[in-house]
Recover the amino acids of this structure.
C-alpha cells in the first residue's frame, strides 16, 4: 500500500504570510493587497526570500538566463529526469497573497516535508518559480516559462519594454537575475502546478480541489466600427449610422452565442467599448471595442470566431456601419496529460478530498511546460467566490493544506515512476 503523507499546514501558511508582506499595500478596510510587478524591486525581494528558503531546505538553486529559479533535490537515481513543480512569485498591480505564491510555496512545503521524514524519492524533484507570469508590466504573460520551453526566443523576451521604456533585459541585469543557466535545458519527467482556481466553481459546489483538465483557448480581437456622427435630435432614426448601436448588437449576439450551447463552454467579453466623440447629444460615429473569446475546445472556438465574423458582415450591410477587426492574440486550448490527472485524482481519493475535473479559465505556467512533458494542475478553491487578482483573494488554511497534501503525494507518486 502506498504511504500517504501530510504536509505541514502551519509552516505553509507562515511562509505564505511572510511572502505576502513583500509588496503589501493597504487596499482599504483593513484588507492588504500585494503588488509585486514582474522584475520590480518588490518582485526581486520576494524572489530572494523564496530563494533563501530553497537553500535552507538544502536545495541547489540555479537561475537561468530569463531569471527562472530552479531548486533541485537529488533523487536516488540521478540518471532519471526530475519531477518539477512550481508557479510564479510576481503579481498583478492589485493582487492577493495566493496567486502564484501558493504554487511555489506548496511545492517548497512538499520538499520540506520529505526532508523532515528523511525520504529520498527515486527521481529528483525540482521546484521552480518562473519570471513574469502575469504579463501586466511587459505585455506578454507566462514569459519565463515560455522562454524556458522554447516558445519565445530569449532575445525577444529581453527586448520587451514596459510603459516607461524599461526592458526585461535591463531589469534582469539590474536585479542580477539574468542567471548563468542556459534556457531550454530542462526536460522534466512530469510537471505539476498547484494554483488558486480564481473562480467560484469549486467553493460553490463544495469541492476541496479541482483536477485541471486543460486551459481554455483564447482569441482576442480589436474591432473598429465606423458609422457617422450626427445630431441626436435632428437625425431621424432611419438616417442613422450608429456605431454605438452596432457595438451593442455585437455584444448581445455574443451573449446569445454563449447561452445557445452551440459553441460548448464559450465565454465572450467585450471589455472595451469606446464611443467617439462620446457626447450626450451626438450619435457615436466611431467605436473601438475588444472581444475576448474563450473556449476549452479548439473547434468550438473557431466556430465562434466564424459566427462572429458572419454576424459583423451582415450587421455592416444592414446598418451601414463599416466594421473591421484585427486579431491581437490567439492561443489554442491546452489539454493536460491524462495520466498525471489520474495520479492527482487518486491521490485526492486517498486523502479523502472531494475533487472534480475543471477547466482553467486563465493562462498558467503549466500550459507552457505541457509542451515538453506530461503536465497537469491542482486547483484550490477560494473564499468570496474565488475572487482573484484582487486584495480579497483568500484561500483558508484548510483549503491550502488540502492542496499541499495533494501536491506532496502527487510529486512523490510521480517521482517513484519508472525507477
Ligand atoms: Zn497565477
Amino acid at each position: 500500500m502506498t504511504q500517504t503523507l501530510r504536509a505541514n499546514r502551519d509552516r505553509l501558511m507562515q511562509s505564505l504570510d511572510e511572502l505576502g508582506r513583500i509588496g503589501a499595500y493597504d487596499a482599504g478596510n483593513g484588507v492588504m493587497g500585494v503588488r509585486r510587478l514582474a522584475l520590480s524591486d518588490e518582485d526581486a525581494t520576494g524572489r530572494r526570500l523564496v530563494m533563501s528558503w530553497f537553500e535552507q531546505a538544502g536545495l541547489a538553486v540555479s537561475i537561468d538566463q530569463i531569471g527562472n529559479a530552479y531548486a533541485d533535490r537529488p533523487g536516488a537515481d540521478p540518471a532519471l529526469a526530475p519531477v518539477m513543480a512550481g508557479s510564479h512569485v510576481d503579481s498583478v498591480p492589485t493582487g492577493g497573497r495566493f496567486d502564484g505564491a501558493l504554487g511555489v510555496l506548496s511545492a517548497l512545503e512538499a520538499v520540506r516535508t520529505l526532508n523532515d521524514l528523511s525520504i529520498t524519492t527515486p527521481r529528483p524533484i525540482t521546484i521552480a518559480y518562473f519570471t513574469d507570469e502575469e504579463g501586466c508590466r511587459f505585455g506578454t504573460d507566462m514569459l519565463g516559462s515560455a522562454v524556458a520551453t522554447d516558445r519565445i526566443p530569449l532575445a525577444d523576451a529581453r527586448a520587451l519594454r514596459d510603459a516607461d521604456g524599461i526592458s526585461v533585459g535591463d531589469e534582469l541585469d539590474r536585479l542580477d537575475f539574468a542567471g548563468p543557466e542556459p534556457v531550454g535545458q530542462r526536460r522534466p519527467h512530469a510537471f505539476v502546478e498547484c494554483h488558486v482556481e480564481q473562480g467560484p466553481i469549486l467553493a460553490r459546489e463544495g469541492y476541496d480541489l479541482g483536477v485541471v483538465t486543460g486551459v481554455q483557448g483564447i482569441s482576442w480581437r480589436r474591432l473598429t466600427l465606423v458609422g457617422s456622427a450626427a445630431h441626436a435630435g435632428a437625425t431621424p432614426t432611419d438616417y442613422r449610422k450608429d456605431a454605438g448601436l452596432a457595438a451593442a448588437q455585437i455584444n448581445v449576439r455574443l451573449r446569445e452565442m454563449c447561452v445557445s450551447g452551440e459553441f460548448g463552454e464559450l465565454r465572450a467579453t467585450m471589455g472595451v467599448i469606446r464611443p467617439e466623440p462620446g457626447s450626450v447629444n451626438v450619435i457615436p460615429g466611431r467605436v473601438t471595442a475588444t472581444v475576448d473569446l474563450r473556449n476549452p475546445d479548439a473547434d468550438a472556438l473557431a466556430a465562434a470566431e466564424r459566427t462572429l465574423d458572419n454576424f459583423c458582415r451582415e450587421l455592416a450591410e444592414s446598418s451601414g456601419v463599416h466594421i473591421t477587426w484585427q486579431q491581437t492574440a490567439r492561443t489554442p486550448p491546452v489539454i493536460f496529460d491524462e495520466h498525471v490527472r489520474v495520479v492527482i485524482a487518486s491521490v485526492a481519493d486517498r486523502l479523502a478530498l472531494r475533487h472534480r475535473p475543471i477547466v482553467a479559465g486563465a493562462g498558467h505556467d503549466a500550459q507552457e511546460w505541457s509542451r515538453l512533458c506530461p503536465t497537469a494542475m491542482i486547483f484550490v478553491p477560494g473564499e468570496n467566490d474565488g475572487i482573484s487578482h484582487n486584495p480579497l483573494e483568500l484561500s483558508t488554511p484548510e483549503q491550502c493544506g488540502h492542496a499541499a497534501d495533494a501536491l506532496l503525494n502527487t510529486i512523490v507518486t510521480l517521482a517513484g515512476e519508472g525507477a
Notes: The chain has two domains: 9-215+333-414, 217-331.
